[in-house]
């Protein structure tokens, strides 16, 4: 190292340092490139970076807006879903109530129909009993007249007398039956 310092002191050119004219022209070209870069390329580059930043910010804003819309749509969907669930529950409850009413109405109608059928059957039975009673009464009357004719030996052909006699006989039978 001492030799390098001695050589520089003696006036020998240093191989590590360029010549003075190279430093001068290199400095001028550097200043020209720096000015050109500063005036031409830097503004274009800055404008391009600003446009890119604005585009990114715009996309971020659009993404935020889209996310907000998606969240609003999700909330609306959830609200509609909750409303639909409530409506479904109301429909189910209403259907259950309607089913209960229908079952009660069917039971009531069945009970009414049963009572009507029983009443109709009782009326029919009573009518058939009356018919049978009248038929038996006539037959008993005819038999009684025939027996009485055979006992008396005469024909009891007067219908009015015979009918009155049979009616009185049956009434007497009923009275003894009611008393006994």
Protein architecture, described:
By secondary structure, this protein is an all-alpha fold. It is 91% helix and 0% strand. It has 3 helices and no strands. The protein has helices at 2-10, 20-152, 159-179. Helix 2 crosses helix 3. The longest helix has 133 residues, at 20-152. The chain is rod-shaped. 1% of the residues are buried.
Q: What's the total number of strands?
A: 0
Please state the CA-atom Rg, rounded to the nearest Å: 65 Å
Low-confidence stretches: none
Report the order of strands and helices: HHH
- The portion of residues assigned to helices is over 70%
Q: Helix tally?
A: 3
Features of the shown structure:
180 residues, 3 helices, single chain, 91% helix, mainly alpha
Quick summary:
The longest helix is centred in the middle third of the chain and has 133 residues, at 20-152.
How is this fold's topology laid out?
Layout: H1 2-10, H2 20-152, H3 159-179
Helix pairs in contact: 2-3
